[in-house]
Amino acid sequence: MPELPEVEVVRRGIEQWATNAQIIAVEVLDPRSLRRHVGGPEDFIARLTGQRLAVGQRRGKYLWIPIDEGYNAVVVHLGMSGQLLISQPDIPDQKHLKIRITYTTGESIQELRFVDQRIFGGLYLDSLLPTQDQPGELIPSTVMHIGRDPLDEHFDTEVIFLKLRKRKSSLKRALLDQSLSSGIGNIYADEALYLAELHYARPTETLTRKEVSRVYKAAEQVMTLALAQGGTSFDALYVNVNGESGYF
Predict the structure, then answer these.
(1) CATH at residue 80
(2) How far is the C-alpha of 124 from the C-alpha of 60, rounded, in Å?
(3) 104-126: per-residue pLDDT in tens?
(4) Model pLDDT, residue 71
(5) Of 114, 222, 232, 247, which sits with the fewest C-beta atoms within 10 Å of its C-beta?
């Protein structure tokens, strides 16, 4: 499953190729990829057509693209095998293409294609709400329960430390808890623990401030390294928006 670096690589690709793009058509080839959208395919198409895409945002593994329609955004859930690809209209459809969003940047017409082999991911529209701790910051309502990630400028290890001291959990299990801190999955949890020289089964209530700081700093370091390599790819299911694999 894509983790923070893989989702951030996709976000950067969307920012580069689709920011300020205007949507001229939406085609839903498989309604199952819109099961999280309350209004269904027709509502999704009607509300998205004609909208302009702003700069994509991310928290942990969650990616969203604000649109013109009030305080709303297209939320992208990649799931196990979801891919968001920028394609020219004349490129043949991918085998597992689920949703096609045709847009123009004023100079050319391109397509934003959502491809998903296992159909665990999907797209949906959601309202943007202000966060409680940062004035002016907006995130989708369905992402409100997700904790900040180690690459977030407002990530606070002291807050994490105080929460961990009250828990009866193992360290790796805590690292994977997306409500505590987001974006860390199996790959980067293992890498961070190895780099920080801490055991995965260490009881969280025994951790010192320095140890908590060390393991999350290690997570930040290893995910930054992964970003420089385009993320991690074990197979063809995770790719960047141009179809390239990650090499971490």
Answers:
(1) 3.20.190.10
(2) 18
(3) 998 799 999 999 999 999 999 99
(4) 87
(5) 247
Does 2 participate in catalysis according to the annotation? yes
In a domain, 100, yes or no: yes
Of residues 68 and 223, the one with the higher pLDDT is: 223
Tokens of 204: 């969280």
The alpha carbon of 33 is separated from its chain's Cα centroid by a whole number of angstroms, namely 16
The reply to whether 3 belongs to the active site is yes
Residue 91 lies in a domain: yes
101 assigned to some structural domain: yes
Nearest 5°: phi and psi at 60? 60, -125
Q: State the DSSP string of 196-236.
A: HT--TT-BGGG--HHHHHHHHHHHHHHHHHHHHTT---SST
From 3-12, 92-101, 134-143, 232-241, the region with the lowest mean pLDDT: 232-241
Closest CA to 82 of 53, 124, 122: 122
Backbone angles phi, psi at 78, to 5 degrees: -75, -25
Residue 214 lies in a domain: no
